[in-house]
Amino acid sequence: MRKEVVLITGANGEIGHGLITHLAAQGNYEVIALDVQTLDDALKPLCLKFIQGDILDTMLLGRLVVEYEIRTIYHLASILSTKAEYNPETAHRINVEGTLNLLRLAVEQSQWQGRPVKFIYPSSIAAYRLPNLETKIAVGKVKEYNWLEPSTMYGCNKLYCEHLGRYYTRHYRQLAADHTTAIDFRCIRFPGLISAVTIPTGGTSDYGPEMLHHAAQDKPYPSFVRQDCRIPFMAMPDAVKSLLLLTAAPRQNLKHVVYNVTSFSLSAIEFRDWVLKYFPNGNISFEPDEKRQAIVDSWPADLDDSAARRDWGWSPDYDVERSFSEYLVPNI
Ligand code: AKB
Predict the structure, then answer these.
(1) Which of 169, 173, 257, 285 has its Cα between 20 and 30 A from that of 247?
(2) How confident is residue 148, by pLDDT bands cut at 50, 70 and 90?
């Protein structure tokens, strides 16, 4: 008999750290962790197995099908928005072809098991693009189905993979005689995430967490965005909570494949002020980089997450005050 497990790709990344810790604490699932980087030593004992490898390695994924009965896939591996602009084609391969490999694995697993495997996919505010600052300010909270013309490779990849997930769930091989529901794809569009444990790499919302981590380490930080630049943020425990809530939601309650979630919206100067409240000696200046600034300007100032609240009972536990005082500062 194969073991029933949860597969987490990108396990050593920001969300992976929080998710593995929570799943291990819950004790309901054995975790198979996959990452191109080696896994943090603290996480290894929490997983049934860690595999160091690439989601583009189809032989490796094939061997997983042989050995394990995968009930849920958290596909977290991706190249983030800033890094992706340095080599868009490579980013496309990892973000899109990698996701396609995982979707194929999910289909194969679902067919073996005779029930749809859950495929949980984190998307991003990068899927949106507001055409200019006036529109961004006027629009405020953005709903899931508006402003979907991303300007970054990462945003394009995320949006397309959302469509792939919808296709694999609702229309996969629709002309085949044996057409059945293949997989159960569920997607969350996250705002900028802030972790106390890991330092982000390669994102464009990173200026927020970078201000905090630099101040905590007594290092100066020149922010690459303007003081008035505003996007929504969320502390990592809420990001993990939303993934687990969406995973547990009864299928019939889910009216959509893709849901926004959010917690608080801050301008860069407000973010700095929160950091300075707890690290008053922090040295944070503003030296905007025009091109990275333009990416952040194209992202929504806030998200409308009413569909997630209605369909699967989403609400954040950590507002900005609680994020800093009870999660970020004590753990950093
Ligand atoms: C990035 O900045 O690329 C990510 C994101 C907003 O998805 N943090």
Answers:
(1) 173
(2) very high
Ligand 1 centroid – CA 262 distance (Å): 14
The predicted pLDDT at position 2 comes to 63
Q: What is the DSSP string of 25-55?
A: HH-S-EEEEEESSPPPTTTGGGSSEEEE--T
Which ligand 1 atom is nearest residue 154's CA? 3
Q: How many CA atoms lie within 13 A of 15 on its CB side?
A: 27
Contact 279 CB / ligand 1 (< 6 Å): no
CA distance 180 to 168: 10
Which tens digits make up the pLDDT trace of 202-230?
999 999 999 999 999 999 999 999 999 99
Report CA Rg, the chain.
19
Atom of ligand 1 nearest to the CA of 204: 2
Instruction: Tell me what percent of the residues of the chain surpass a pLDDT of 70.
Output: 98
Kindly report the number of other CB atoms within 10 A of residue 156's CB atom.
21
* 67-81 pLDDT, tens digit each: 899 999 999 999 999
Query: Cα separations (Å) of 205 from 71, 186, 232, 294?
Result: 32, 23, 9, 12
* Global confidence as pTM: 0.97
Structure tokens at 276: 């300075």
* Structural contact between residues 199 and 209, judged by C-beta atoms closer than 8 angstroms: yes
**Residue 281 alpha carbon to ligand 1 centre in Å:** 28
